[in-house]
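Notes on consecutive records. When two proteins share a document, each keeps its own sequence and its own token line. Never mix them. Below: protein one.
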Amino acid sequence: MKFSEIEESRWPELQPFVDTCLLPVTGLSGAENPWQAAAALEKLRDVMDAVEVPFRGRIIAYPAVQYGSEETAAALGPLVANLKKAGFRYVVAASAALRLDGLAEADLTIGPGEDGTLPDAERIRGEIRRLWNA
């Protein structure tokens, strides 16, 4: 579910059931050509779909942080804290381009492994279930 799909009048009834925020991190540097930026967004969309689609109604995707590096992504801690203050019990940060291991404030980070490959959708679903069942 996208943040833009939630109407103000419906939020009080939905909030008890929507306890997880998906924070996408694109990882653009600004040096990309238009087609490279589009490809990066498509890869991020695929990762987001693996999180959002199977858990629709419990996860809300927020706007993406578009530009940054692994070093600057680690500085997103205050943003994660604010999302929790806004009422989300869990924050899942996801990137198709950056390793987000340094973002300790997030309850779960999803991104490429050491070899650059992304986890498959089944693994992502399993990690989210483990998060909720912990």
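Protein two starts on the next line and is unrelated to protein one.
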Amino acid sequence: MAPALLLLTLGLAVVALRTTALPAPHRLSLREGFRRSVARPRGTLLLAAAALVPAALVAWSIPVLVPLLPGPLAFAATVVDLRDTPEGATD
């Protein structure tokens, strides 16, 4: 049960991060974040591996830094979203 709960939590965190990286005309919509996560699995895996796992390790080892983690995570989600967008195209 623990691995399933861990994967579910990781998936929800990635969808939430993809939601925060939506461009300006979009409102915060979990449906749109989920759609982007499923449509671009490479970026989703990159976000999970490069941002969430190290953030969890930092939060576990140095709990004082937990209030500082949302900034770099939102930045990573934005960069992954820009990376997945074809050059010159806008959503």
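For the record: The mean pLDDT is 83.
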